[in-house]
Amino acid sequence: MASPSSAPPRVLTIAGSDSGGGAGIQADLKTMLALGTHGMSVIVAVTAQNSVGVQGYWELPVEAVVAQYRSVVDDIGVQAVKTGMLASAELVEAVASLLAESTERVPVVVDPVGVSKHGDTLLAQSAVSVLRDRLLPQATLATPNLHEVAQLTGVEVTREAELSDAAKAVQDLGPEWVLIKGGHLEGDAVDLLRGPDGAERLFRAPRYDNRHTHGTGCTLASAIASHLALGLDVPDAVAASKEYITGAIAAGFPLGSGIGPVDHAWRWRTA
After folding, report:
1. Which entry of 16, 84, 217, 252 is annotated as an active-site residue?
2. pLDDT, tens digit (0-9, with 9 covering 90-100), for 182-202
3. Helix/strand/coil (H, E, C) string of 202-255?
4. For a 10 Å CB count at each end of the chain, is N or C smaller?
5. Would residue 2 count as lying in a domain?
6. Which of 215, 242, 246, 260 is catalytic?
7. What is the pTM of this model?
């Protein structure tokens, strides 16, 4: 009988479920597996979702979210945490409180999900201030897109030169590091990373002629959390994750009649 092998690094995602399998918890767990970590989940909401949009979502009770978190953390433990769709002020507050009570500080990647790829609202307006005041200050890294930057700070970005101001505005809310995702700008896909010392680094990738990009934000944040659990520092984790998501976008495939997902298994298919 073979002896048991050691467990891979453990990463916890706290987010919503995507019934279509392209984003949310499903994308997070696929990413974690693809990158060699053990993914675990705390589901905060369930969506009815497919390639054309979100038909509805239902929040789980706060006690169910707390019970899932305690069940995983108290027994298995985690080496990195990623948060995604948190839906309501009550759920954001509950997650922020759980992270604040943690006795062992691990990297926390906060993807402040506010709007879906199809433009569907996934964060109640009443939750924005709670996310801003309670959750972002606990983030090792925050990964907002341009719509979420505007939602959180009021800063509108229309060109690459404005990414720096956006990163500073988000960092002023408390996260140690900030990655502004500039995917909605024209030209190359450009993201800007700002560190605790104010130093900035641009990550530039080609823009592929492929509309099947569902789950991009969830996948990138989960990849960063996975690389942090694997021992990389933040800049190297972001660089490795950008390489992974760029390949996943290039390999994105059609599914249903709308926008298909990125391909989380692209490395396996091209090996």
Report:
1. 217
2. 877 878 889 999 999 999 999
3. EEEECCCCCCCCECHHHHHHHHHHHHHHCCCCHHHHHHHHHHHHHHHHHCCCCC
4. N
5. no
6. 215
7. 0.95
